[in-house]
Amino acid sequence: MNGAGTAGAPALAAGSDGAVRPTARERRGRRLVWAAAVLAILALLLGVMIGPVRLGVGDVVRGLAGALALADASELGFKAQVLQSVRLPRVVLAAAAGAALSVSGAVMQGMFRNPLADPGLIGVSAGGALAAVAVIVLGPGLLAGFGGLALPIAAFLGSLLTTGLIYRVSLFDGRVVIPTMLLSGVAANALAGAMIGYLTFLSDEQQLRLLTFWTLGSVGAASWQSSLPAIIVMLVATMLALRLARPLNALLLGEDAAMHLGVEVATLKRRCVVLTALAVGAAVSACGIVGFLGLVTPHLVRLLTGPDHRFVLPASALVGAALMLAADLIARTTVSPAELPLGVVTALVGAPFLFWLLQRRRGAGSFA
């Protein structure tokens, strides 16, 4: 990756008075993080306010006051109920999923030292999709006793089990072998795709509709009861992933150089895989499969900030949240009262970006 040689150390420079000051690149990175935070907040507000029932700023303030028990929600009327029961869980889930998918993509790109890496490379999305499709087609009796939570629980467990299997296959002498992990991920994705195809063949019309919509992603069914566990897992995994910035910077220099700098490379890879599995598994369990976000967002951020993960990771989380909120807003307003799948919207944006990226890097002869 270009510029990797400067990423292992803090971007600081000494002034004429001997004081250590941030370099121009570090100042740019900080500005981008703050700009991304503002963008995420604006997207969150728009997501809350725009919809079939339009909410003003006053409606949002009163509804939030009721949600915080600062006002009696029963006296705030229909708009407050829409805010608390429909809009808030939906936008919070979308923001958490966007942040989780994007920061996971940034972590994977740092671990593989390739800007075209994606969380799907380790099979986490495919495993979750296969488990969820199995529950849809073969019946929720597979997880009897969980009721409406059977589908997200199955998707989460499928993601973790698939990632765990790939991780075990990739171990050699206690170290994760990256090429083996990549090939294992390809095999797992192919196998999961074949099994999903077979289960799709067995499904009836109603199951096929649910299966198709779920595999393309949606936050339309979000509620606090069904989504809160996944939101908590995604937020915790995202926060823990932000702590990997400095060791990932060292890894950009190469594994041997990172080890000389005191980084336990095997432990770092394990943490990257586990946190990615938790974050993406929770996102898949709550939203279905939303493609391209984990690839597009961190690479877009890296083009603006450079390779320093101290800025790439938080900016990816914030920009990813904003993009997911924007995609959900487009999905639920473009063909209202119907709703587009999230995966359709993100693919319409992500695929042209990928073509542009391929064209841009064609002359370089390398994607690393």
In words, what does this structure look like?
The termini are close together. This protein has a single domain, classed as ABC transporter involved in vitamin B12 uptake, BtuC, CATH 1.10.3470.10. It is mainly alpha-helical. It has a two-stranded antiparallel ribbon. The protein has a two-stranded antiparallel ribbon with strand order 3-4. The model is unreliable at 1-19 (pLDDT under 50). It has 14 helices and four strands. α3 packs across α12. A hairpin with a 2-residue loop joins β3 (171-172) and β4.
Q: What gross morphology would you assign?
A: globular
Strand content: under 5%
CATH class: Mainly Alpha
The SSE string, one letter per element, is: EEHHHHHEEHHHHHHHHH
Give a brief outline of the structure.
This protein is an all-alpha fold and 368 residues long.
